[in-house]
Amino acid sequence: MVTKKYLDQLTYEKTGAAIEVYKQLGPGLLESVYHQCLKKEFHLRNLGFTSEMLVNLSFKGMPIDTQIVAIFQ
User: Fold this and answer.
1) Most buried residue, 1, 21, 38, 64, by most Cβ within 10 Å?
2) Cα distance between residue 6 and residue 12, in whole Å
3) Mean pLDDT calculated for residue range 53-67
């Protein structure tokens, strides 16, 4: 069972990883650079995640193929 405490801890750990990447790289880079570094940081911290999952959606009735990045498990 997933508890609030577990989700709070997971959120704290994932946010900490994102802050660490930002502190190391600073602002102004492409999203793809932050994405690759965040994947490395999650790996270093043994944090599970799934990256670049396909999501089917539509925009104004037209199908859009897109990817959503760094979804955790």
Assistant:
1) 38
2) 10
3) 81
7-35 pLDDT tens trace: 999 999 999 999 999 999 999 999 999 99
List the beta bridge partners of residue 38: none
Provide, rounded to the nearest whole percent, the portion of the chain with pLDDT above 90: 66
Domain ranges of the chain: 4-68
- Chain centroid to Cα 52, Å, comes to 9
Neighbours of 51 (CB within 10 A): 15
Kindly give, in sequence order, each residue whose CB lies less than 8 Å from that of residue 70, ignoring residues fewer than 6 positions away. 35, 38, 39, 42, 49, 51
